[in-house]
Amino acid sequence: MPEADRDILVAHPHVLTPAGEKPPAPPPLGGRTWADAGLSFLAGTASGFLPALALPFLFGRVGAAVGIAVQGGLVATWWFGGLGFFLVAGTMLQIGFFVTLFVLCWEGRAQRLGREHHTRYYVEDDFDDQMLPLVRRAQDAVAAVLGSAVDAAGLLDDIANTLELPRQEWDVARTCAEVTRIDRRIRSLRDGDAGLDEMLEPQRRALARSIEGVRRRVAALEGYAERTAAADAAYREWQVMEELEDLRADVQELLARTVQDELAVAEIGHLAEKTPLTELRRTVEEARQAGLVLAAGEKEPA
Questions:
Q1: What is the dihedral of CA 85, 91, 97, 98, to 10 degrees?
Q2: Residue 62: which domain range?
Q3: Do residue 137 and residue 201 come from a single domain?
Q4: What would the pLDDT profile of 124-182 be if each residue is shown by its tens digit?
């Protein structure tokens, strides 16, 4: 089925009917009920004379704009035509809103899709306690492969996986549902007449072979999932090694820059010795020393 339809059905599981049961009949009047008629009548009655208040609750901002405009028209009808015209106009609006709201009350899309796609999906009630775990194991295995990093990276045969694995999952579910259906019929016949055990033995042996075949297929899917998990681990290890190589290159570059920094420090120190500031400091220090010597000479007695 289309992916969009599947997403809707997954989000509304209450509309799904087991494949082993008859599909639900189309609802009368397009899914409209007496409750819908009653609510439409009440909402239409309120919208007929107070559209500015009722329509925003029904249609949001668009309803608010329409309600204000219609309310203005009703006020103008009363002002220029009197109470009689106002009541006639309000009544006509009530009828129009009632019909419109009742028409909008139709069968939801999820219910319609659940009926139209019947037998194209399975629910838990389609499987017994023996078959349901096999279906879930197949689903887990397929999800593990399709959700793996190596599959996302295109290292596996992604086209075959995308097409083949869902088909394998569906075949497992279909076989398990058919086995469950036949087994339930066999049990109902045997419960009705215990003497039918010998006659039903060939059917039970056929079911056993079918179950064994499904188990082998599920085991193969799980084996594929395990090998994919091992490939994922190797892929992650390879990614770590690639990152370590990049990190090693960055560290070597950093060390090279460190050596350059040490050379630069020496060069900067050499340049600093040649700056006018250094010469000024040396001259000031010489003058200071000379002043100290001069001061010491003046203190000596003649």
A1: -170
A2: 3-115
A3: yes
A4: 999 999 999 999 999 999 999 999 888 888 777 766 788 888 999 999 999 999 999 98
Residue 40: closest CA among 87, 98, 90, 84: 98
Residue 107 or 170, more confident: 170
Same structural domain for residues 150 and 215? Answer: yes
Mean pLDDT of the chain: 77
Strands (E), 33-96: none
Please, what's the b/e burial string for 7-20 (b: 16 or more CB within 10 A of its CB; e: otherwise)? ebbeeeeebbbbbb
Domain count of the fold of the chain: 3
Domain check: are 110 and 7 in the same one?
yes
- Cα(169)–Cα(178) distance, integer angstroms: 14
* Helix 197-273 / helix 132-146 crossing angle, nearest 10 deg: 30
Q: Report the alpha-carbon distance of residue 222 to residue 142 in Å, rounded.
A: 8
Q: For residues 69 and 132, state if they share a domain.
A: no
DSSP assigned state of 23 = P
Write down which residue in 80, 115, 150 finishes a domain. Answer: 115
Q: Tokens for 151?
A: 């599959």
User: Is pLDDT of 295 > 60?
Assistant: no
Q: Which pTM value belongs to this model?
A: 0.60
